[in-house]
């Protein structure tokens, strides 16, 4: 629980906590059946790999670059689907 952002990037923490391994860890210690929730004590014990801040920056930059590419591809797919539908509507 450190607020020293010279040692970690909040975005790095965010991405690490979005990993399947974190979800699996939380669900392994879940409480409740109808509405499962993670055990706070277990969650607080979760160890996040903490490379040097420069490595964290590199990792975050790579993830953000890939997210941008994914967004571009999704836009291309949406545009292609719209164009396809326009052709179908016009000729069929």
Report how far apart the termini are.
Answer: 62 Å
Strand content: under 5%
Mean pLDDT: 91
How many separate helices? Answer: 4
The class by helix and strand makeup works out as mainly alpha
GO molecular function: DNA binding; endonuclease activity
Keywords: DNA-binding, Endonuclease, Hydrolase, Nuclease, Restriction system
InterPro entries: Restrct_endonuc_typeI_TRD, Restrct_endonuc_typeI_TRD_sf, Type-I_RE_S_subunit
Family: Belongs to the type-I restriction system S methylase family.
What can you tell me about this protein's structure?
The chain is 67% helix and 0% strand. With 92 residues, it is mainly α. It has one domain. The mean pLDDT is 91. It comes from Porphyromonas levii. Belongs to the type-I restriction system S methylase family. Residues 8-74 form the Type I restriction modification DNA specificity domain. This is Restriction endonuclease subunit S. InterPro entries: Restrct_endonuc_typeI_TRD, Restrct_endonuc_typeI_TRD_sf, Type-I_RE_S_subunit.
Provide a concise account of the structure shown.
The chain is mainly α and 92 residues long.
How is this fold's topology laid out?
Elements (H helix, E strand, L loop, with lengths): L9 H8 L2 H9 L11 H6 L7 H39 L1
């Amino acid at each position: 629980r450190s607020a020293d952002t010279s040692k970690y990037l909040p975005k790095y923490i965010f991405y690490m906590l979005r990993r399947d391994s974190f979800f699996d860890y939380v669900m392994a210690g879940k409480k409740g059946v109808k509405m499962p929730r993670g055990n706070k004590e277990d969650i607080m014990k979760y160890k996040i790999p903490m490379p040097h801040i420069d490595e964290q920056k590199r990792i975050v930059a790579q993830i953000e670059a890939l997210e941008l590419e994914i967004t571009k591809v999704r836009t291309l797919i949406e545009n292609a689907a719209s164009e396809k539908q326009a052709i179908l509507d016009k000729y069929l």
